[in-house]
Write a structure and sequence with these properties.
With 888 residues, the protein is of the alpha/beta class. The chain contains 31 helices and 29 strands. The chain is elongated and about 115 Å long. The protein binds one RNA strand of 79 nucleotides through helix 1, strand 8, strand 12, helix 9 and helix 12.
Length: 888
RNA sequence: GGGCGAAUAGCUCAGUCUGGUCCAGAGCGCCUGCCUUACAAGCAGGAGGUCGCAGGUUCGAAUCCUGCUUCGCCCACCA
């Protein structure tokens, strides 16, 4: 109903159709074989069943800014998108769905279950790819990949076979991390340790020897005692030396346990006696190896007590068994003490179930040989992290790397390409599915396990572009340039990509790793489904636009730091970006009607430029450099701030305000033409600098320039590279003087509560040539901004009025007999005088110190002298005024 | 137990690597005044900070060094 509504920027109607146009025009796509000047980012593939969350919002915004900026610079920018099959996560999703109907995966059987997961993926998977379009991700969609694609699966097999042939993949029985709910092994990195209050149970193991002494051991997991096969003491422990070699009797089980000596035992802890359970503790496993102890596995895959245990406990869940055993120990008089005990408990990173260290046969990758080149690359500076300190994390992990358990007892994933011959027992590792044993023609059975999801992720930068085929894309798009990811993924993914890239491509997959922070709520908590404190990026896009979301995100956190967003008040959370988008829109709404086709075709330098024109061109020149440099250094936050400050604080607040008169023709045609041509270039340049960050609104405005249409997209640039000739220090200095002048008048007006509409007269005495010239050039303009007429004066009247002394030493006087009372003005002057006094004092102290004059660089001393002279002059003028005022 | 990071305005954060142009900036919030026809999602003005604490280096420290305190993260097999 009113114009106000129209003045608000409405992204909803603009963004989606614009994205469609971009995609249809193929602006994000570079055909294979035509990549000549590549800039490549391989996306961290989101889970195929996942939905976009704010973490993606942050991560993708950074990638898209880099990609769009390089594309505008003329690079063949390719952002390779795709999804990850995410073994456990996806399988869990489908299992949960089945469970609603009371069906388990075992009910269905392997083949049918995998079929179901594929159905699920085809139906619901990949929605995230659509959602990415909503936030503006300019991916090369024709290159979309999925980790279970045929091509990527071939790469997985190729890598497995080559590593196996090289002796870097082996199978063995070891203690691994077992999730009894997922019923699969996990890698060390997939276990999350949390300190939790627990109990430390002290249990007396009676001696089996006549007259021998009992030993008290301590454990946090009493149920594992069922699998004890020894008790260990330190070889130099005087308390127990005599007992080594004697047997103890395992309570509740009745097994004889030898007392052995092993240096692993900590003399300080408890009684110095350690129960040894080789099948359920990694350290005990090693002790067991050294002493050739039997391994008694008392747990089933689902976490219940196995047939190796006494009948009374078989089939009980591990925690039930714990309670029962504690009761029975107590009843039998074996329980000495129960202590409260805080200890780290491992949880499954996918389902949070408590992990059991469990003995089983698994496949492993020998990591140390792979890690060496990866470490060297980092230490030689070929692999760089941003911020730098994250490199230390990488280095430390690589230095202490342990073998990687890659087999998972899941059904969803890349099946391990190993077959066993039932007839002759051979183990066949093959790129293709063999039909019979090559040795004896016997029947083959494939290993039932699948590979860790991260195994295929590790190959992502080259498997997505064709490897192991030698494609044009592989040639052009590997290595990529920049990886953008979260710090918690450095071990899971970054390090492994580096190792695999070096091993199979002979080259790092990327040179720069940009680490983004975490998105948190306003209370600093990580956004999580379980906390219900998440923000849906799609809702943000709908309400405020993708641009507003992107700008808010970038402005909220500098490189590597976390960002806080209030999920309870989205209006407040995204106000920064929304307001900025609106400001941009309105600045353009004002400017565009004045511009002509000719303006953009004409170089500003061909017009009769005035001070304000030269000033804004100079400001733009320096802003463009600042933005480019910030982007080169991955300081996106600084780039965003610079574009904001230029556009709002300089172009809109000053240039446009001053240009209003000229654009209206008040100062003649030449002036009008200079203003409109300058404005056209500034608006266009600003939109281009802004485009990587806020692609939609910038494109909308840039294509609305007179003479342009939707066809004239800025998606492919060019990126602004203003000529050095636009730099103009003199104009900047003169203009700064004007800004100070206007600011002083506004300040005095506010200080005396003068009606904003009242036209003032301002007398200026002693303006240096630069300022005097500027006042002459922009007289009407600054009159408008200050609502005052400026007059040069040789002397200032003695009557009542408001005074100010500018930095240049020029004096400013507002003859305002009606509103200025002498007392108040004296107070104001006094305050200003005090300020100058204290500045002068510290300056003088410095210059009076011989040490400063001798040791500080000459330039610093010189600057200090100039400062003092100027301060002294300003003080002198103020003192004079005060006296005149006091006398008057 | 190791390692890393953070601490600057009421809030969220820049600035610290490369000490002087910073008696420290931005946005939000707050106070005052404005519907000045691009924008009230706006305009103008203003208040607000012992730069965590204690030492040290230096002519000079938010910035470099040492110690401490408080948060956060990562790694780690002390049962």
């Amino acid at each position: 109903m009113s114009q106000k509504l129209d003045s608000r920027y409405d992204p909803a109607g603009i963004e989606a159709p614009m994205y469609r146009r971009w995609e249809e025009a193929g602006l994000f796509h570079v055909p294979a074989g035509q990549v000549e000047r590549p800039y490549v980012i391989s996306i961290p593939p989101p889970n195929v069943t996942g939905a976009l969350h704010m973490g993606h919002g942050l991560n993708h915004t950074i990638q898209d800014v880099l990609i769009r900026w390089r594309r505008m610079q003329g690079f063949d920018a390719v952002w390779v998108p795709g999804t990850d099959h995410a073994g456990i996560a996806t399988q869990n999703v489908v299992e949960r769905e089945l469970a609603k109907n009371g069906v388990s995966r075992w009910d269905l059987g392997r083949e049918a279950f995998v079929e179901k997961v594929w159905d699920w993926v085809h139906e619901y998977g990949g929605q995230i790819l659509e959602q990415q379009r909503a936030i503006g991700d300019s991916c090369d969609w024709e290159r979309t990949r999925f980790t279970l694609d045929d091509g990527l699966s071939r790469a997985v097999r190729e890598v497995f076979v080559r590593l196996y042939d090289k002796g870097l993949i082996y199978r063995g029985e070891y203690i691994i991390n077992w999730c009894p709910r997922c019923r699969t092994a996990l890698a060390n990195e997939e276990v999350e340790h949390r300190d939790e209050p627990g109990k430390l149970y002290h249990i007396r193991y009676p001696s089996a020897v006549e007259g021998g002494q009992d030993l008290v051991v301590a454990t946090t997991r009493p149920e594992t005692m069922l699998g004890d096969t020894a008790v260990a003491v330190h070889p130099e422990d005087p308390r127990h030396a005599a007992r080594v070699g004697q047997d103890l009797l395992l309570p509740l089980v009745g097994r004889l346990l030898p007392v052995i000596a092993d240096e692993y035992v900590d003399l300080e802890f408890g009684t110095g006696a350690l129960k040894v359970t080789p099948a359920h503790d990694p350290n005990d496993f090693e002790i067991g190896e050294r002493h050739e102890l039997p391994r008694v596995n008392v747990l089933e895959a689902e976490g219940t007590i196995s047939g190796e245990a006494p009948e009374a406990y078989r089939g009980l869940d591990r925690f039930e068994a714990r309670e029962r055993i504690v009761e029975d120990l107590e009843a039998g008089g074996f329980l000495v003490e129960i202590e409260d005990h805080l200890h780290a408990v491992g949880h499954c990173y996918r389902c949070d179930t408590i992990i059991e260290p469990w003995l089983s046969e698994q496949w492993f990758v020998r990591m140390r040989p792979l890690a060496e080149p990866g470490l060297a690359a980092y230490r030689e500076g070929r692999l760089r992290f941003h911020p730098e300190h994250f490199g230390k994390k990488y280095e430390h992990w690589m230095e202490n790397i342990r073998d990687w358990c890659i087999s998972r007892q899941l059904w969803w994933g890349h099946r391990i390409p190993v077959w066993y011959c039932e007839a002759c027992g051979s183990e066949i590792v093959s790129r293709d599915d063999p039909t019979e044993c090559p040795h004896c023609h016997g029947e083959l059975v494939q290993d039932p396990d699948v590979l860790d999801t991260w195994f295929s992720s590790a190959l992502w930068p080259f498997s997505t572009v064709g490897w192991p085929e030698e494609t044009a894309d592989l040639e052009a798009l590997y290595p990529t340039d920049t990886l953008v990811t979260a710090s918690e993924i450095i071990f899971f993914w970054v390090a492994r990509m580096v190792m695999m890239g070096l091993e199979f491509m002979g080259e790092l997959p990327f040179a720069d790793v940009v680490i983004n922070g975490t998105v948190r709520d306003h209370r600093g908590r990580r956004m999580a489904k379980s906390l219900g404190n998440g923000i849906d990026p799609l809702e943000v896009v709908e309400r405020f636009g993708a641009d507003a979301m992107r700008y808010t995100i970038l402005s909220g956190a500098s490189m590597g730091t976390d960002i806080q967003l209030n999920y309870q008040d989205l209006d407040a959370a995204f106000a920064v970006g929304r307001n900025f988008a609106n400001k941009i829109w309105n600045a353009a709404r004002f400017a565009l009607p004045y511009l002509t086709e000719e303006d953009l075709a004409t170089s500003p330098e061909d017009r009769e430029l005035e001070l304000a024109d030269r000033w804004i061109l100079s400001r733009f020149q320096s802003t463009a450099h600042e933005v480019t440099e910030a982007l080169e250094a991955f300081r996106l936050h600084d780039a965003a701030a610079a574009v904001y400050q230029f556009g709002w604080g300089e172009l809109a607040d000053w240039y446009i305000e001053l240009a209003k008169l000229r654009l209206g023709g008040a100062r003649g045609d030449a002036s009008r033409a200079a203003a409109s041509t300058t404005l056209a270039h500034m608006l266009d340049g600003w939109m281009r600098l802004l485009h990587p960050i806020m692609p939609f609104v910038s494109e909308a405005i840039a294509t609305r320039h007179p003479g342009r249409s939707e066809e004239d997209t800025i998606v492919r640039g060019p990126w602004p590279e203003p000529p050095d000739s636009w730099e103009d220090d003199a104009a900047e200095a003169a203009f700064a003087g004007l800004q100070e002048l206007v600011g002083q008048v506004r300040n005095l007006r506010a200080a005396y509560g003068i009606d904003p509409s009242r036209q003032l007269t301002v007398l200026v005495r002693g303006a240096p040539p630069g300022l005097a010239g500027a006042m002459a050039a922009e007289g009407e303009g600054i009159s408008r901004l200050a609502r005052a007429v400026f007059q040069g004066a040789d002397g200032l009247p003695a009557g009542p009025g408001a005074h100010a002394v500018l930095q240049s030493g020029a004096e400013l006087f507002l003859p305002l007999a009606d509103v200025v009372d002498v007392e108040r003005e004296l107070g104001r002057l006094e305050k200003e005088l005090l300020r100058l006094e204290s500045l002068l004092e510290s300056s003088r102290a410095r210059l009076d110190s011989p040490a400063f004059v001798e040791k500080a660089p000459a330039a610093v001393v010189e600057r200090e002298r100039e400062k003092q002279t100027s301060l002294a002059e300003r003080r002198r003028l103020l003192v004079e005024k005060r006296r005149a005022l006091g006398e008057g």
